[in-house]
Amino acid sequence: MLMSSLGRVLCSVLYIALLVIPGLVYAADAKDNLHKITLSIKNLQGDFTQFEYDERGRPLRVLQGKFKMTNKLQLWWQVAPPYAQTVISNGTHTMIYDDDLQQLIVRALDTENLPPFFFMASNPQLLDQMTIDQPDPEDPTFFLSDSNTDIFVRFNRRLPVEISWENELNQKIMINFSRVTKNRRLAKKIFDFKPPPGTSIITD
């Protein structure tokens, strides 16, 4: 089901082999460069295209949708039909609503396993806990790694354009961002999800 797949995208332990590239800048410099980017972000919104590949690199499916997020750990992540689903974080809990099942799963927010939040300036502790490498100090492409998470992140003009990793099934997940803007006014109510009448609610 999409819910389990998107849950892995946003909440599960992520795996991707860290690329070893000669000439990496010092980790401290890479971390400082990434901090400068994230500190400039108060919120983001735009479109995304998510590509999923199996362990042999064969395409599994493509998901598209829109997102909004803030540096207060608020997230609105909506997948378009035919895989319609909405993931919302209000800063303390994550809610996953499946349109087809009319089902809402509510769970405590786990910031360490939410890759999009690596862009958020409100969570410098996430970056501080990771090893960060940057092959070229002039190119805002970063490799982030800790004991159980390795992620590739690329920016352009201080806006995220790509993030990728492998999940626990050795499937590669790559998300491309487009039409991204930052620090524009967002309505707070978008992060206050109210499920439709008749929705089955599950607390995880």
CATH level-4 homologous superfamily: Lipoprotein localisation LolA/LolB/LppX
Major sheet summary line: 12 strands, mixed
Number of DSSP strand runs: 12
Q: What is the CATH class name?
A: Mainly Beta
Report what the structure shows.
This protein is mostly beta strands and 204 residues long. It has a single domain (2-192), classed as outer membrane lipoprotein receptor (LolB), chain A, CATH 2.50.20. The chain has three helices and twelve strands, in the order ααββββββαββββββ. It has helices at 2-11, 27-39, 124-128; strands spanning 43-53, 59-70, 74-79, 85-90, 93-98, 103-108, 131-133, 141-145, 150-156, 159-166, 172-182, 200-203. Strands 7-8-9-10-11-1-2-3-4-5-6-12 form a twelve-stranded mixed β-sheet, covered by helices on one side. A hairpin with a 2-residue loop joins strand 9 (150-156) and strand 10. The longest helix is centred in the N-terminal third of the chain and has 13 residues, at 27-39. It is globular, with a radius of gyration of 17 Å. The two termini are 17 Å apart. Mean pLDDT is 81; it is low at 10-26.
Features:
globular; 14% helix; 204 residues; 12-stranded mixed sheet; 12 strands; 42% strand; outer membrane lipoprotein receptor (LolB), chain A; mainly beta
